[in-house]
Amino acid sequence: MTPTHTTDGRASRVLVLNSGSSSVKYQLLDMRDRSRLATGLVERIGEETSRLVHTPSAGGGAPRERTGRIADHEQALKAAAEELAADGLGLDSPELAAIGHRVVHGGLRFSEPTVITDEVLQEIERLVPVAPLHNPANITGIRTAQALRPDLPQVAVFDTAFHTTMPEHAARYAIDVETADAHRIRRYGFHGTSHAYVSRRTAELLGRPVADVNVIVLHLGNGASASAVAGGRCVETSMGLTPLEGLVMGTRSGDVDPAVTFHLKRVAGMSVDEIDDLLNKRSGLVGLCGDNDMREIRRRVEEGDERAALAFDVYVHRLKKYIGAYSAVLGRVDAVVFTAGVGENSAPVREAAIAGLEGFGLAVDPDRNAVRSGEPRLISPDDARVAVAVVPTDEELEIAGQTFALVHN
Ligand code: AMP
């Protein structure tokens, strides 16, 4: 058997769990070389059509699939544990150092990864009113993992943590202070693990200390958010109390006049739940053109489809506004960096978002932009005043790294 301890004899594996309302994603990493030993996804938990796909990375094994009802998160995690055990990577292994959980909302209290105690779990529960879709699933994932390995450190890594450094004037909405404070209404921001990882990797790409560089990170996935990071600290981000605010996303509207909601209630007679559903699930790219996959939208644009072209233009226009706004917030920008599904893969989005921003010192070299690669890379010309980069995100690696660092300190 290959040794799986660090050189000082300590366990070196971390299991990362990302529990959604009806899904669990997992990855097992070996932190000696940060390699992935296995990855998996359980989806449609609670339905008849549940599905588990497990991919062993070591030895290049083929993905294995299970179908049929998986009743709840406990069964999902047990099924994942069985698949891991079949590869000799069981959760009962002494090589497992900790389990790292993605937790969406950490409020103001959790600015760092945190070992989960009963008190910490209670605090995550207290945040359910500001993250009703996400925190309950995260809590279920934690409880289930605790039951499987009660002896093992379980660590919460919060999506909001990186943004807790935002100054008060950026985090506070201009609404009545007492009302806002009573209901904990402020800008929290999300995707923090990605913004932290990508901004740090961008400094490495530039060959400069993190403390010296100012970066605008554009995390463009199905969910999308921008952040302004000054010397490694987040000073502004586009998502707010919830992940609805900011950029145009796959199915979320991003910024709208808040009065749109009153209007839909008073004039269109929609309920609050219907408006919630509209803005979160039936807006953004899907609402504008019926598709949320940027590949499909570009294919339609190439064919002359006007609705797809409008969706693309609205998406890019919003991006430009944020690049301009965050340039002003930072004062000096060293790099604009694209990441996540759209940011890493869509050359047309990157080209269009930067086009016309020469006055900001921004330009894209078409040949560099066309390169497809999984590596961090510059796509600006050599003589550009501000670097434009593509840096693939890796939230699981960041969660594993933060978890491992915490339990080994
Ligand atoms: P994420 O949430 O980071 O997994 O990103 C998912 C989104 O990335 C999808 O909805 C697509 O819009 C987009 N995407 C993935 N691959 C490509 C690609 N090759 N070209 C353009 N967009 C892509």
UniProtKB/TrEMBL annotation:
Pathway: Metabolic intermediate biosynthesis; acetyl-CoA biosynthesis; acetyl-CoA from acetate: step 1/2. The gene is ackA. Substrate binds at R102. The record marks H191, R252 as: Transition state stabilizer. This is Acetate kinase. ATP binds at K25, H219, L220, G221, N222, G223, D293, M294, R295, G341, V342, G343, E344, N345. It is found in: Cytoplasm. CDD domains: ASKHA_NBD_AcK_PK (cd24010). Mg(2+) binds at N18, E395. Belongs to the acetokinase family. It comes from Streptomyces clavifer.
